[in-house]
Write a structure and sequence with these properties.
Elements: E1 8-12, H1 17-28, E2 32-37, H2 40-52, E3 56-61, H3 67-81, E4 86-89, H4 104-132, E5 135-140, H5 143-146, H6 153-173, E6 178-185, H7 191-200, H8 204-210, H9 219-230, E7 241-244
Parallel strand pairs: 1-2, 1-4, 2-3, 4-5, 5-6, 6-7
Bound molecules: nicotinamide-adenine-dinucleotide (NAD).
Amino acid sequence: MKRFEDKVAIVTGGGGGIGSAIARRLADEGALVVVSDVNADAADAVAAEIVAAGGSAIAIAADISRKEPCFGLIEEAFAKKGRIDILVNNAGINRRGNLLSLTDEDWHTSFAVNLDSMFHLCRAAIPHMVEAGGGAIVNTASQWGLYPAPNHIAYNTTKAAVAAFTQNLARDYAPHKIRVNAVCPGEIHTPMLEAGVRRSGRTIADLDKLVPFGRIGKPEEVAALVAFLASDEAAFMCGSLVEITGAQAVA
Ligand SMILES: NC(=O)c1ccc[n+]([C@@H]2O[C@H](COP(=O)([O-])OP(=O)(O)OC[C@H]3O[C@@H](n4cnc5c(N)ncnc54)[C@H](O)[C@@H]3O)[C@@H](O)[C@H]2O)c1
């Protein structure tokens, strides 16, 4: 028996590095996956890849920085699949800068994509989960939300808020058997990380040396953790912030 047989899972940022790995992993384990991304082509490609590999997936494009598309995504997924068992709030952006170098737009867009999206998506999805008697929500926070790296004040602050949001939501909805947890990745090799590396003038090899484990992480390694947290094997995990960093303590 696969862990997610007949379960419906929505993955935001599903066209990106970590999100596509999560979508593939959940589908491999039997889930009917809704791959969502603001980049419609990327979401379509990941869904098509899953279907070609024998899995079940559809793509729904949505810009989750705004309330209406968040509700639209959940309602379209529910209308097409009839249930929502798992919501993975993974989409995110990383605007580099300190207090004075960031623009107002950087600050507000960071909050809209990284945090407000979770508020809206959870408000849309949780009534369906309550009605069904339970569900699992996994949020992608970041190690930098717990231990801030310099020059990323907007990103780090949104991720700290994601951690707080996760714990609050968990406490409020645990009585409904809705488990809410967050993963806090360190450096993971994705397009977002490659963009950051290019901006900083560093290389992947430089980052590998900063990690006591000897290398940065792979999206599939985060996906394995997300799958565990979304599964019944994590039945008593609710409100946990799980770091996955290769023992890297400070960025
Ligand atoms: N890569 C890392 O080292 C790392 C470390 C810690 C946390 N994270 C977090 O992991 C998550 C995934 O990041 P990634 O590294 O895979 O990056 P990525 O850039 O490869 O993927 C992010 C995805 O989110 C999508 N997205 C951006 N804005 C959106 C919007 N408004 N609406 C819908 N989708 C939108 C992008 O199109 C992209 O496909 C993010 O929340 C990120 O903050 C990444």
